[in-house]
Amino acid sequence: MPLPFSAPADSASTGVFADISPDVSPDVSPLSAARAHPRGTARVVARERLLAQLTEARRRRGIVIQGPAGFGKTAVLVAWRRDLRALGFDMAWVTLADDDNDMTHWLDHVLASLAQVSPAITREAALLGGLGDMESEAIERTVIALVGGIAACPREIVLVIDELHRLTNPRVLEAMQWLLDYAPPNLHVVLASRSQVPLSLGRLR
Questions:
Q1: Which of 53, 86, 96, 202 could, after both became Cys, cross-link 163 (CB 3.0–4.6 A)?
Q2: Cα distance between residue 6 and residue 195, in whole Å
């Protein structure tokens, strides 16, 4: 059974890899475990440990949280948001849906979430993204403009991309990769997914 924070060899540079897996004893079937009350003592202790580790890693450039549906990825991140606010961090949050495989939808949601932190962050990127030219070069320019807006922000920003497993469009994944590659020091990206993250994380140092 994977440990709550088991880091595979190729994820060390990411900072933290959380593998949220069912805590099933040998004499309990997976079905019974899935129906168990989610606020059991072991689950609460595991969540508190996970929150502590997330807070300790809050300045890392990238954090990956991976686990099956129903095992508390989003709930942990919601609780962590409260802790981060107390520490002076801002959080932008995007929960992906199936239609976010469309470049325009994905970009609109990312810009909207960061604009809630500060409209100045996304001003230039929104102008470029609204030109209607969504070729790769134009998308990269838009991402670079967004990164510049984030870098100019005097505060630390955590960007949560929840339900990342819904992204399968190569062009959207390419844009997501650019955002990770060009991320300034004050941007900390958290990727929550049910499956392995389809991105290169080697540059997140």
A1: 96
A2: 15
Work out the angle between the directed axes of helices 136-151 and 119-129 (0-180°, nearest 10): 170
pTM of this prediction?
0.76
Cβ neighbours around 28 below 10 Å, total = 12
Q: Which two tokens stand for residue 19?
A: 């593998």
Among the residue ranges 27-41, 68-82, 170-184, the one predicted with the least confidence is 27-41
Helix (H) or strand (E) segment spanning residue 15: strand 15-19
- 46-51 contacts, C-beta under 8 A, 24 or more apart: 46/4, 47/72, 47/75, 47/76, 47/79, 49/4, 50/4, 50/5, 50/18, 50/20, 50/76, 51/76, 51/79, 51/80, 51/83
- What's the pLDDT tens digit per position in 93-150? 999 988 888 888 899 999 999 999 999 999 999 998 765 556 788 899 999 999 999 9
The Cα 115–Cα 154 span in angstroms is: 14
